[in-house]
Amino acid sequence: MSKPRRTVPATELRVRLGEALKALEDEDIVVEKGGVPVALLTRYGKEVAGMGAEIETLYERALSKRA
């Protein structure tokens, strides 16, 4: 089951990025610029990191730096 998606204008996202990042736990966010969808924000995790060894390595490095 996929998460619900919310559409947000790019200007609003710029102003409220912290709130949007917290919301990714519960929903994906479609970013619109000029009324046209241009990006999809989704929570980054192991399932996404598994798409490529390079991304997985970068993810693991970022986690180890935060620890």
What features would you describe in this structure?
The chain is α+β, with helices and mostly antiparallel strands. The chain has helices at 10-15, 17-23, 46-49, 53-66; strands at residues 5-9, 28-33, 36-41. A hairpin with a 2-residue loop joins β2 and β3 (36-41).
Concise synopsis of the structure shown:
This protein is an alpha+beta fold and 67 residues long. Helix content is 46%, strand content 25%.
**Count of DSSP-assigned helices:** 4
Largest sheet: 3 strands, mixed
Radius of gyration: 14 Å
Q: How much strand content do the residues show?
A: 25-35%
Q: How does the SSE layout of this entry go?
A:
Elements: E1 5-9, H1 10-15, H2 17-23, E2 28-33, E3 36-41, H3 46-49, H4 53-66
Parallel strand pairs: 1-2
Antiparallel strand pairs: 2-3
